[in-house]
Amino acid sequence: MSLRPLDQSRKLQNVLYEIRGEALAEADRLEAEGHRILKLNTGNPATFGFEAPFQIVRDMIEAIPNAHGYSDSKGIVSARRAVVYRYEQEPGFPTFTPDDVFLGNGVSELITMTMQALLDEGDEVLIPAPDYPLWTAMTSLGGGTPVHYRCDEQNDWQPDIEDIRAKVTERTKAIVVINPNNPTGAVYTRAVLEQIVEIAREHSLLLLSDEIYDRILFDGARHIPMATLAPDLLCLTFNGLSKTYRVAGYRSGWLVVTGPTDHAAGFLEGINLLASTRLCPNVPAQHAVQAALSGVQSIDALIAPTGRLHEQRDAAWEGLEAIPGVSCVKPQGALYAFPRLDPEVHEIHDDQQLVRDLLLREHILLVPGTGFNWPTPDHLRVVTLPEARVITEAIERMGNFLASYRQ
After folding, report:
1. Domain spans of the chain?
2. Measured between alpha carbons, how far is 5 from 192 in angstroms, rounded to an integer?
3. What's the CATH fold of domain 10-50+301-404?
4. pLDDT of 80-138, one tens digit each?
5. Which CATH architecture has domain 55-294?
6. Nearest to 329 by CA among 152, 124, 196
7. Residue 265: how many CB atoms within 10 A of its CB?
8. pLDDT digits (tens, 9 = 90+) for 331-381
9. Is the pTM of this model over 0.90?
């Protein structure tokens, strides 16, 4: 019997996620052969010895006997109230209620739901370049067209406002802002954010603000929530527990809706519908939200000048800057560095091949810059989660590799 071939859906044609792409499969193969691989491809704190705060684990354990049924499709009320309380502590954050909060199986699910509810074929969404690639992927999967606006490396990776203005069309529906930024570590200034809000105001654009790293900040950097600058616009704020509270595997995120909603009733009904079709978020992980947001904020010690995350950021940045032909804007937030390889020194035509060759020779796994929709093969993303001595050694090995590498 001959079976009809089954190919993947054409909807996946423009869906890419190099963070867990072919290079990771090769790394897993090498590990299966007995090699030790330093995986600097994904921001997974648990892999590098970061433990979940015990209060969060305790509350989840205590809740499990009563967490075996479905919850409300938006999530349990106590967790959504905790999210409301968190933002009540943010000066100027618009007022909202637990009904304006959706809990999700990580921010990733909430991004997917948002794009599915928002987009028709050909609708455009402005997304930064470089970006967190899930935003581009889910825009494409939702039937929309991702339009990438430039972030300026010469200006500490701040968004290029004139480039944003030039790319707004009558089909533009929303603008995505990732702040603090993954992959660059940039923290956006108030002036830049205000100009983005003004563009959204002029063209009646939906604001989609990814703020998952809002409490991982260095050197006195200050995060300004987008919603505080746009009380008169519909703004969706995405956040969660995975990074600040080091519980990525719990898949516990939230979406907050602020601003006027009458003009967007259909869109918000769409999110409600999609929330219902997935039945509910993971219930045990929802019980982590209140404990996390109301307990001791252990992240503060980690980002302090003597804290582990701060020291690792410094070690990564200093090591990268020391490599001939490599430069790196110093990250002000998040868990990544995005170094540039000077084409005059390192003539790279294919950054995916560079990543594979580095993996095979040095057993270090990175992500190519083009995996973040950066247009040229001259950047890499480095995760700054390993201990300082580990990341220092890894970057030294990377420098030795680049010294003799040719494509």
Report:
1. 10-50+301-404, 55-294
2. 50
3. Aspartate Aminotransferase, domain 1 (3.90.1150)
4. 999 999 999 999 999 999 999 999 999 999 999 999 999 999 999 999 999 999 999 99
5. 3-Layer(aba) Sandwich (3.40)
6. 152
7. 9
8. 999 999 999 999 999 999 999 999 999 999 999 999 999 999 999 999 999
9. yes
